[in-house]
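We modelled the chain as a single entity of 196 amino acids. Its sequence is:
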Amino acid sequence: MIIKRVFDVVVAVVLILILSPVMLVIAILVRVRDGSPVLFRQERIGRHGARFEMLKFRSMRPEDRSAPPITIEGDTRITSLGRHLRAHKLDELPQLINVVKGEMSFVGPRPELEQYVDLFPDEYRTILTVRPGITDPASIEFRNEAALLAEYPDPERAYVEVILPQKIRLALEYVRSRTLLGDLKVIGKTVRTLWS
């Protein structure tokens, strides 16, 4: 949808300009308190299967390649500053850049790692016909995902077998019925969720 893309670019640019002082402060805090790098970059699968680097302010200690790619509540890899950033999703502000570049949208199925996409090829064939988003109905539904996963003895298995199938169902529903008005409602619900 051309209107959706114009909306994404205009709003993302305006927000970057307005929030640039906040983003600068966060970047300085991360650099001073936790060192480099300031940004966390992770390859995700985007529209039509294209790979891209999703950006976040780094909220965890340097990555342990043997550690699971998911995080749970109380994860010792999360820094004290990172916990505060994650609480209000401030770590995701750099994704505004992904939106401007056309790799993401404000609303769309959250982009996944290739290893998870490969587990559900038929479903993702449909999901990946749209740009992934900063938020979507599944983000609202599973806003306490880290706490939910912490309840399982094997969080990664629980993610694949319990959480991800539900996210996929919500993503498919979104793709099949998406509208600009629907996107605005999702954004409104997201904002209310963050500050409730």
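As a brief sanity check on the tokenised model: The mean pLDDT is 94. DSSP finds nine helices and four strands in the chain.
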